Amino acid sequence: MSENAARRLSRMFQLISVAIDAQQDHLSDLDGAIGDADHGITMSLGFAAVNSELSKLDLDHTLPSEVFSAAATAFLNAVGASTGPLYATAFRKAAQALKPLESLSPADQAIIIEAIAIGIKERGKGQRGDKTMLDAWIPAAEAAAEAASRRATTAEMWNSILAAARDGANATRSMVAARGRAARLGERSLGHMDPGSASAVIILGAMRDAFTEDHVSRPH
């Protein structure tokens, strides 16, 4: 890669923050239909805090796992709502999964997605079909694992990941919420996309951009 792994991850978190900020009102509107109408604000605050914390690191002497550990702490400190612990746990899982690694090959990138999905699932005690962010993250993780197993190029893998996440998020419209604040609505949650799954797609899109920026014309 043209830059070290820690700088690539820092760039990734910057792109996530920009993308979330751009969709902040949309995410809060989605949340307004079935929640507290603050999901966009919450996510924006969380990733702004992450980038503030990462700006303090010496990225030339920082491991990928340390970037995710710093992100986990910063996100949790900034976001007290349920989303905070979920993504903090997700980033800690990613840190643990990357511990022995100093590179970010396509296989390593797939490991990150899988670790994030596992972290969210373990912390939230949820599953696919509950109408939560897992409806995007679990399909994304499955697509990542499948792409890595067939040694897909970086671009191919991320296209598969994003397509799976988008399909998963869109599917939440036909689900009745089983977890979170939306579960209080019962059948009234039908017809609305889960805001957590919508923000997961935005995050994954920014991650794809970060990992494919210099891989557009050549396989990794």
From TrEMBL:
In alphabetical order, the GO MF annotations are: kinase activity
- Which keywords fit this entry according to its UniProt record? Kinase, Transferase
Q: Which residues are in the DhaL domain?
A: 7-209
Pfam families in alphabetical order: Dak2
User: Does Kinase appear among the keywords?
Assistant: yes
Q: From what superkingdom does this record's organism come?
A: Bacteria
Q: Which InterPro entries match?
A: DhaK_L_YcgS, DhaL_dom, DhaL_dom_sf, Dihydroxyacetone_Kinase
Which protein is depicted?
A: Dihydroxyacetone kinase subunit DhaL
Instruction: Look up and give the organism this protein is from.
Output: Phyllobacterium phragmitis
